[in-house]
Amino acid sequence: MPPQPIVEWCYLKSVKYGAAGVLVGHPLDTVKVHLQTDDPKHPKYNGTFHCLKTILLKDNIQGLYRGISSPMMGIGLVNAIVFGVYGNVQRLSEKPNELITHFWAGSIAGIAQGFVCSPMELAKTRLQLASQIDHGMMFKGPVACLKHIVKTEGLKGAFKGLTATILRDIPGFSCYFVSYEFIMRQRKQPSIPYTLLAGGCAGMASWLACYPIDVIKTHMQSDSLGNLAKYNGFVDCAIKGYGKEGIHFFFRGLSSTLIRAFPMNAACFFVVSWVLDFFNSKGVDMVVNPDKSLNIVNLENTNLGLQTCSSSPIDKLVRKIITNNNLEPSYDLQLTSDEVLRCSVKSYTNTTSQIDSERFTEKTK
Ligand SMILES: NC(=[NH2+])NCCC[C@H](N)C(=O)O
């Protein structure tokens, strides 16, 4: 395996493309938060589109984009933690290709990102609902909002909703990765549209798995600060919400979440698989056999356990390696098994340190 510039790379990519996803998805996130916190006795909104329209008419496009700076600033870090932790846990486990491993790796990633995600979403939620909470106080941005919270409530205040965030994201991310893997495994060579479909479905499945906990999280994070707080914690919030409105409480805002989840996560997985493709094309390993034939291990689909939609035909890849290693570029290429490509090199000038047979055997085990 290559060393870990992967984290840096993923970070830079996810900042860029994560930000694009946030830009597209934020209005529906705002709708979700408003629907979740609407008063069931005197509802202001009667559905996703009504809510969208009402906010637009009242507050303009600004109303829908309020609070966006928080996920904009945090999404890169959150995604880097999610995909970095998930990938490494999955890769280093004993059975990296079993679905159950993806499940555990996703859960651990969900816990790890919670510590950044929770304050990020706290600021986001409070900015989105600015006109209704904090005495209608308008903060300049997420940093000003969190500063105010830390000043009045202490550091603990900035982590309001942490338990709910982690409890949401354990099922959220385990379901996210398991469903993505499962859908991708239905195809031998997933096309680009298929990869987008898999990512979109994984996003929707993950929100279905954790939505009621997300409702509680939003209520915890939009609750008044200090002594004025309505809820005494996660369980108290769930009981009070259920008591007030029954099971319906846990599902308000679900449709806007699902609509948002599809494009957002289709794009997210697509970018990730594209980034990994880049590494996979470097992660091809090879060994020169005593008979001067060359074995090339195609690491595609093993790196970070994500299946990729490779745009680079293996043939091109092999050519690159051959030239990079100053090998004679004419070769016969044949597939000897799913993972191992054997190509005989007519002649070669030198063997670089990249070529070592032990790594080869380990990877094909
Ligand atoms: N419930 C979850 N956290 N699911 C994972 C999806 C995360 C993704 N960034 C989204 O907001 O759609």
UniProtKB/TrEMBL annotation:
GO biological process: mitochondrial L-ornithine transmembrane transport
A GO term, aspect molecular function: high-affinity L-arginine transmembrane transporter activity
Membrane-spanning intervals of the chain: 63-87, 99-117, 194-214, 258-276
Membrane-related topology note: Multi-pass membrane protein
PROSITE patterns with a match to the protein in the record: SOLCAR
Positions annotated as Solcar repeat: 12-92, 97-186, 190-278
Keywords from the UniProt entry: Membrane, Mitochondrion, Repeat, Transmembrane, Transmembrane helix, Transport
Domain of life: Eukaryota
Cellular localization per UniProt: Mitochondrion membrane
Coiled-coil region: none
Coarse class of the protein's main subcellular location: mitochondrion
GO cellular component, one term: mitochondrial membrane
Stated family: Belongs to the mitochondrial carrier (TC 2.A.29) family.
Protein name as it appears in the record: Mitochondrial basic amino acids transporter
Biological source species: Drosophila willistoni
